[in-house]
Backbone:
């Protein structure tokens, strides 16, 4: 019995030894893996002279935007565009019911035709009055000669003089009537032109090349003068409007170069200040700065943008942008120390010319891995290659 117990103990000891040996072999595998150096390239954490910048955020807006409104009252009969459509200058956008305007136009035409017809009658009356005047003048001259020769009585001469004066008066009246009719014709022509203009208001066209950004009107709506129907923004002309602290005003001037970052496009562009609104908002103690953006097909009103104004120079600590590893909100680099790569959390600032500003986490002269191989892990051995 005692011998059996001893055999069991020896068997258990052998099993434990075997498991320990297997475990040791398993533990040696990572060591073997860690012992294989990873080939990397490195760069030094270095000081650099960078421009000092002030950042302001704002919104992209169209430089030219037109609110299309009705000038006359009428029901919306046709809508030929929709939101987002590109339009050309002079293109028809909407058509209003123009029956009332058309009736007014025809009435103005009738008034003009009537005045023109009256002008013909007056011309005939002037011709008749001219003939009567000519006859009366000849008769008067003849009677005058006879009267001087004492061949006719005073009564006969007076009657000839009266007829001559009456013919002159008739001719002058006909000429005055002509002047009145001419004035009525001009008035009728102006009325017809006004009616034509009013009729043209029923067809609403685009004032310039652009994009339809708003369409509050619907088919069948009653449009009244001043009622907004559409909004059209000029194509390819945008600016960024940012709110700048009033204390920064001395640093800004019209025409100054500005870097603008557009997050939606993930792009930085060169721009210039076009205007500085002089009025300061009393609540925020800021003023609006307008920055002209270069023509860009992808630009849209309402996009978010950041403007970076140069305010001087500063000395900063930098690393290559390729050395930075970003995971969510965490930013880190691999620092090479004693042939090993160690992860170091850092806080970074601006980016310029392929380098990142280091706010904390590194010191000048340290060496970081750049670029970072995908297989590199914390504590791995590295072999630096140029």
Residues:
């Amino acid at each position: 019995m005692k011998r059996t117990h001893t055999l069991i103990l020896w068997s258990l000891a052998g099993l434990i030894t075997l498991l320990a040996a297997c475990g040791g072999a398993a533990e040696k595998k990572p060591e073997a893996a860690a012992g294989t150096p990873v080939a990397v390239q490195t760069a030094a954490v270095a000081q650099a002279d960078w421009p000092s910048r002030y950042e302001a955020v704002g919104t992209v807006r169209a430089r030219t935007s037109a609110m299309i409104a009705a000038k006359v009252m009428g029901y919306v009969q046709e809508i030929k565009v929709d939101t987002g459509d590109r339009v050309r200058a002079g293109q028809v956008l909407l058509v209003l019911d123009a029956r009332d305007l058309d009736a007014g136009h025809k009435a103005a035409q009738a008034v003009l035709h009537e005045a023109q017809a009256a002008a013909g009658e007056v011309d005939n009356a002037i011709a008749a009055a001219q003939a009567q005047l000519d006859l009366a003048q000849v008769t008067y001259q003849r009677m005058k000669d006879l009267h001087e020769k004492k061949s006719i009585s005073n009564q006969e001469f007076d009657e000839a003089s009266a007829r001559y004066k009456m013919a002159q008066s008739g001719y002058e009246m006909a000429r005055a009537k002509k002047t009145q009719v001419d004035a009525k014709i001009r008035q009728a022509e102006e009325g017809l032109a006004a009616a034509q203009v009013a009729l043209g208001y029923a067809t609403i066209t685009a004032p310039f090349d652009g994009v339809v950004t708003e369409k509050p009107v619907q088919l069948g709506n009653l449009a009244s003068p001043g009622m907004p129907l559409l909004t059209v923004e000029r194509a390819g002309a945008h600016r960024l409007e940012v709110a700048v602290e009033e204390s920064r005003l001395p640093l800004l001037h019209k025409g100054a170069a500005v870097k603008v970052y557009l997050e939606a496009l993930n792009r930085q562009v060169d721009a210039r200040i076009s205007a500085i609104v002089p009025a300061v908002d009393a609540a925020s103690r800021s003023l609006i700065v307008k920055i002209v953006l270069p023509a860009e097909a992808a630009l849209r009103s309402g996009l978010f943008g950041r403007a970076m104004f140069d305010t001087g120079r500063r000395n900063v600590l930098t690393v290559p942008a390729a050395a930075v590893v970003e995971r969510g909100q965490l930013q880190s680099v691999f620092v090479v120390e004693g042939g090993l790569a160690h992860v170091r959390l850092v806080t970074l600032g601006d980016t310029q010319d392929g380098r990142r500003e280091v706010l904390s986490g590194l010191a000048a002269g340290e060496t970081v891995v750049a670029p970072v191989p995908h297989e590199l892990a914390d504590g791995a051995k590295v072999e630096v290659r140029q």
Confidence is low (pLDDT under 50) at residues 1-34. The chain has three helices and 23 strands.
